[in-house]
Amino acid sequence: MSTNTEFPGPVKWVDDRLGIAKIGKKNLRKIFPDHWSFMLGEIALYSFIILILTGTFLTFWFKPSMAEVEYQGSYSLLKGLHMSEAYASTLDITFDVRGGLLMRQIHHWAAVLFIAAMMVHLLRMFFTGAFRKPRELNWLIGFGMLFLGIIEGFLGYGLPDDLLSGTGLRITNGMIQASPVVGTYMNFFIFGGEFPGDDFVARFFIVHVLLIPGIILALVTAHLFLVVYHKHTQYAGPGRTQKNVVGYPLFPVYTAKAGGFFFVVFGITALMGALMQINPVWLYGPYNPAEVTAGAQPDWYMGWLEGSVRIFPGFESHFWGITLSWNLIIPALIVPPAFVTLVALYPFIEGWITGDKREHHLLDRPRDVPTRTGIGVAFITFYAMLWIGGGNDLIATHFNLSLNHVTWFLRFAVILGPILGFWIARRWAISLQRADHDRLLHGLETGVIMRSPEGKYTEKHQPISTYEAYSITARDRLVPHEIGPDTDENGVRAPRRALNKARAALSRFYYADAVQKPTTQELEEAHEHAHDADEIHELTEDTETYREVTSDRS
Amino acid sequence: MSEKRPSLSPARFLSARRRHRSAGLVVLLFGLLAVGSAYAAFAPDNAVADNSAQSQQIEEGKKLFAVGCSSCHGLNAEGGGNGEGKMAGPSLIGVGAAAVDFQVGTGRMPAVQPGAQIPRKAPAYSEEEIEALAAYVASLAPGPSVPGSESYDVSKATDEQVTRGGELFRTNCTACHNFAGRGGALPNGKYAPSLMGVSEKHIYEAMLTGPQQMPVFSDQVMQPEDKRDIIAYLKALETQKDPGGFGLGRLGPVSEGLWGWFVGIGLLVAVAVWIGAKGVRAKGAKAE
């Protein structure tokens, strides 16, 4: 491009030194497919940028110190009280720094949205099967960011050293101490002695503002690089195959869309920060281990852990002078890590069960793989039940229920709910598959009833559009994993027979009951039959015009 | 021993009879007589109607009690059963006027129905009627009286006192009533009610008498000026505007999370759908 185009002076100057024309030529024409669900990850990215901007502002005034000071700022209800410098400087940011409260609130709302957006994005990946080969590693990177984001949020929640966050830290401190053998040592290591000690704010601060944001930033880079490298997935449609990407170029379409969306995200976050009060630390008061408040909850993303601990029965065992707090070990140290690992490794688990080693660039619809959809709904239900448990007190008071009834309901619902959710979602997906199958073979019901000369009544059916037919039939045929013969031709028993049998059984479970898409022959026969029965009347449609660009994946 | 009996002096007589089988009973009777006389001499003379207006008020209170309260609390406030072996209302002997003024003044009594906890509602009795009921219950046995307005007047509270009240509030009250006095859950359908919109007097009386699930913070446990400071802090909280915008109920992170998901993510996804629908393709024929 630079050979036959004359750039304006400054652009040429930069191009001569950095070669931006060559990079730009390739990347500005990068094709991205168009769908609203592809923009969920963008919300997370933009929230992260807002977090860095507002967070930097806050560091100018926040003092990460546990030194005791007497508050003399302008909030009269706490004047003269002794508190840590961290808490006092948070009050100063809130009441005495111009724009400080707004920045604090934008920062906090952006954190709420950052993690929520990552989770919504993860759900989109899950239900469309976007994690399949070759994107398993990007799933792990994304998962790592979600995990780090949650830790990051929790550390930030602890920094102001107010009564609420102190109570939350106290619970975390209890969870750490509950780990057998190493708990006490780990606790001393993290807090530099007995809880709360004088060290944690300074330590949390540097992890919060430097270490974790740095790692997240590196992971964001890797994540986006892989998106570009793999090229974006797309939903099935005419002209869209595993080998191409149909969409619009980055410049100008997506620079406008994504750039505009950034400002919308920033605008909405700023509006929330301006209008909706979040984390009113001045109401909580300074942290004092002797005090506690009702309704002490963590931010939403830690709520499921809180709920897990809240609804678990109070089991403890004592022997040889040792106390094992099962009421913390199981709900805080076993169940959440196990669940999180299961989600993180899901792409590999599904890949192993189905034995699918192919690359996938066309996305599934949730109905296309009913068992995966069912598992996803079971995960959501499990998470939601624990999440509700985290707010069991507010649910009890606001819906006039007994706290004990809410807790007992959740104890059962956390186990039965996912089973029920799995079953309903899976059957629902299968029903949708059957409906699709019907539309494909028999067309749309028109509601027009025809009477034939011999008195027979039939309903007119119209064939569905080519676009829809293509979209419905683009999915794979789901074939259970083949177990293979017991012995090879020399009579030697195949290795890992039991494992393979289990795998085949899981694979059958995965694909059992799923409706296979019709073969070409079936389709033709059905249409043939329909024509004979005078059921299908071709629609004269205007030819659709697509002005999207197709780009090869290779 | 028998020949010396007629010549016994009183002291020797008592000494010699001290092991008599009825000696203990005699001593007990003497003791009761002495304590009873001393009590009658020194104790405040509540039961005796020295003031006709007061006795009239008690009479009126007794009538009101018989109509509105006795079905549960018994005809003489001795407490009553519900006929199935369960208590319908506790004994009110010794609860004092402050308890009556709180329970009836906040509308909790008379209760609509038994339950885990009797909720606050609009009071059913007028000021005078409440005073009469309180006078009647107070006449049964001594108990905490209705505090005078000087003990809960917080209009002249200094910043220092308010701050002190906040510290006392966080130490003694927030565990159940929440950091902003918005209330919280207790086991089995019970709850710590919201303290918003409760009068100074009623907050004071609640601390003094410990209604329903609440512990009693008597004047020995919590000095009257401590109580006043706590009330001063609560009133300051109540009138304080939320500097950050809508307070979201001052309930903490649960309501924040709810708003973040429904308003924040909800709006952003709606915008994403809108942007996704806006595009080059929207000019052509709709695809699906």
Q: What structural category arises from helix and sheet content of chain B? A: mainly alpha
Distance between the termini of chain B: 126 Å
Helix percent of chain B reads 40-55%
Cα-to-Cα separation, first versus last residue of chain A = 22 Å
Radius of gyration of chain B (CA) equals 31 Å
Based on DSSP secondary structure assignment, what is the total number of beta strands of chain B? 4
Strand order of the largest sheet of chain A: 1-5-11
**Share of residues in strands of chain B:** under 5%
By DSSP (H or I, 4+ residues per run), the number of helices of chain B equals: 11
Biggest β-sheet strands, sense, barrel of chain A: 3 strands, antiparallel
Q: What is the structural class of chain A? A: mainly alpha
Biggest sheet of chain B: strands side by side, in what order?
Answer: 1-2
Number of helices of chain A: 20
Give the number of DSSP strands of chain A: 11
Order of helices and strands of chain B: HHHHEEHHHHEEHHH
Task: Give the averaged pLDDT of chain B, no decimals.
Answer: 86
Would you identify the regions of chain B where 5 or more consecutive residues have pLDDT less than 50? 282-288
Shape verdict of chain B: elongated
> Which blocks of ≥5 consecutive residues of chain A have pLDDT under 50?
535-546
Largest inter-chain contact set: A-B, 84 and 70 residues
Please tell me the overall pLDDT of chain A: 89
Tell me about this structure.
The complex is a heterodimer of chains A (554) and B (288). By secondary structure, chain A is mainly alpha-helical. In chain A, 59% of the residues lie in helices and 8% in strands. Chain A is built from 20 helices and eleven strands. Chain A has helices at residues 9-18, 20-27, 40-59, 85-95, 100-127, 136-158, 163-178, 183-191, 200-230, 250-275, 281-284, 303-311, 326-344, 346-354, 370-390, 392-398, 403-442, 466-473, 497-511, 520-532; strands spanning 31-32, 68-70, 82-84, 234-235, 244-249, 317-319, 322-324, 362-363, 444-451, 457-462, 549-552. In chain A, the strands form five sheets. Chain A has a three-stranded antiparallel sheet. A two-stranded antiparallel ribbon of chain A has the order 2-3. In chain A, strands 4-8 form a two-stranded parallel ribbon. Chain A is globular, with a radius of gyration of 29 Å. Residues 535-546 of chain A have low confidence and may be disordered. By secondary structure, chain B is mainly alpha-helical. Chain B has helices spanning 10-17, 23-42, 52-68, 70-73, 96-105, 127-140, 159-172, 174-177, 200-209, 224-239, 253-277, and strands at residues 80-81, 87-89, 184-185, 191-192. Chain B has a two-stranded antiparallel sheet with strand order 1-2. The longest helix of chain B has 25 residues, at 253-277. Chain B is elongated, with a radius of gyration of 31 Å. The relative contact order of chain B is 0.08. Mean pLDDT of chain B is 86; it is low at 282-288. Chains A and B meet through helix 3, helix 5, helix 10, helix 16 and helix 17 of A and helix 7, helix 8, strand 3, strand 4 and helix 10 of B.
